[in-house]
Amino acid sequence: MRRSSAQGVLYGQAVANVAGISGSDLECMDFLNLEGRATAGRLAEVTGLTTGAITGVVDRLEKAGYVRRERDDADRRKVFITVVPETTAEIGKLYVPMQQAMHKVWSRYSDEELRLLLRFATDGYKGVLEATEALKDLLDTPPEKRADLKTPKPRR
Where does the HTH marR-type domain lie (predicted)? Predict the structure, then answer.
């Protein structure tokens, strides 16, 4: 799992390099793809970055033509960030070889095995999310009040 995760990060970095953006900007764009559209505050929330850092990310992605800012029709003060489908589709093409390789791997499994793997991946994601939140809590604790940096306690 660690090798697969690390290789996924490296693949994403290679895609970002080809797209001319940073790996972290690409990850933020992926969150935008998952969210549909989001405010800078929501993007900061799901990535763990500060709103100031998100402003820089959005500025860079907008300049590169991958996202745009759109004012909310109901509340003109609210701004949503959305992906530009035409340009992000070009990035999507870079993932085709990986998708093809994974489909080849998945074709070797029965439906029952695939359901188990899906459950495993979903539960694993939830575990990583929980651990991330626990680590954020630890980082929000002043250093002098941190009991042990090596063992953040998971949220319940």
Answer: 1-126
Chain segment 40-70, per-residue pLDDT in tens? 999 998 888 888 999 999 999 999 999 999 9
**Measured between alpha carbons, how far is 45 from 19 in angstroms, rounded to an integer?**
25
Enclosing H/E stretch for 91 = helix 85-93
Q: Does domain 2-87 have CATH number 1.10.10.10?
A: yes
> What's the whole-model pTM score?
0.78
Alpha-carbon distance 28 to 46, whole Å?
9
Neighbours of 103 (CB within 10 A): 9
Q: Are strands 67-71 and 37-38 parallel, antiparallel or unpaired?
A: unpaired
- Measuring CA to CA, which residue among 57, 13, 24 is closest to residue 38? 57
Mean pLDDT of 130-140: 82
